[in-house]
Design a protein that fits this description.
By secondary structure, the protein is α/β, with parallel strands linked by helices. The protein has 13 helices and 17 strands. It has an eight-stranded parallel beta barrel, surrounded by five helices. Strands 13-14-15-16-17 form a five-stranded mixed sheet, with helices on both faces. It has a two-stranded antiparallel sheet with strand order 1-2. Bound molecules: iron/sulfur cluster (SF4). It catalyses: (2E)-4-hydroxy-3-methylbut-2-enyl diphosphate + oxidized [flavodoxin] + H2O + 2 H(+) = 2-C-methyl-D-erythritol 2,4-cyclic diphosphate + reduced [flavodoxin].
Amino acid sequence: MSMPLRDPLTDLPPPCADAPRFGPSPRRATRQVRVGGIAVGGDAPVVVQSMTNTDTADVASTTKQVADLWRAGSELVRVTVNTPEAAAAVPRIVEKLAMMNVHVPIIGDFHYNGHQLLAGEPACAQALAKYRINPGNVGFGKKRDTQFAQLIEFAMQYDKPVRIGANWGSLDQALAAQLMDENHARAEPWDAGRVLREALIRSALDSADRAVALGLPADRIILSAKVSGVQELIAVYRELATRGTYALHLGLTEAGIGSKGIVASSAALAVLLQEGIGDTIRISLTPDPGASRTQEVIVAQELLQTLGLRAFTPMVTACPGCGRTTSEFFQELAKSVQEHVRDKMPTWKITHPGAENLTLAVMGCVVNGPGESRHANIGISLPGTGEAPAAPVFIDGEKAKTLRGDNIAQEFVAMIDDYVESKYGR
Ligand code: SF4
């Protein structure tokens, strides 16, 4: 008896019971921390934050950059507070931002002299929404514990949360040496990398526990333990996530410039976010000379949105183009559509809530164009080489119109605006 032929497309084996889960794991349970008006941790969405690179003492340029970062979507902005002049500038920056109707919590980044600056500028201590403390840079020798305690006391006095942010580049050397000694006594010593990762984790956790012992509630503490290597960062945060319920700030430190920084940060953070680890993120990019600081905000938003964790701005699906695309028109249209919706989003956020969930497709030819366009809310399939000079537009899976002539770009953008108006307008 002959065996029936098997159709490889339809005769699939039964699904495996332990097939990998689809989508991110549930968020790890953390204590929620209020930073100004923004909730971090608990059931709050993962928060996007950024940091200025201006001299904080320069009130005008710092105010402008904070406003730019906020307009780009940064929900928290950190500024360097390193000198008495910078500390004195903070309340003026916060006041100017309020006058501009920019209401973003400002975080002060302190190293070495934070205790003196907060003591010398009570208005700065009051104006900041959170203090960032690096346990490796609080002070040296016997002064370290005293100065750390002073910082925590200021946080309690002014009712502020803190981030205890350990960093590979400023690891608490005394703790690292202690753990190295303990490691030598192990029957099976760890490798040096694991000891250093443990030192970083312990530096953050021990400092947080010390802050709690001093009287700061645990729901006013966010932790971070940043390194510059992708695999090390994943290992550190996986471990940190198992050892407490403090809210976690994720970021790859010194990620680098250009595509290297974007890829490295995205690779590390995507793995952790997919595992439900992380309550707020910062993408630490080195901007190209003269480039806008806001790129780190856009990358952070796009990372969260492509993972399906949050929606910030309509997503444009575009094919890469190939030998079938006849001109640069297709690339220009994809770019102008992306820029158009990004420019519109701050207004739509208020006037057309939900528009951030819109999906768009700009495709270069008939091969995948109509199919991909049907999957989007609005999609256009441009004519490729040798195709009729017509661009069908699909709305919610149905062919709605065919655009022709010299004004395809303007007409397509107008259709997007009409769709947003009819679907999300109040
Ligand atoms: S949709 Fe067409 S133009 Fe775009 S990559 Fe595929 S074949 Fe090339």
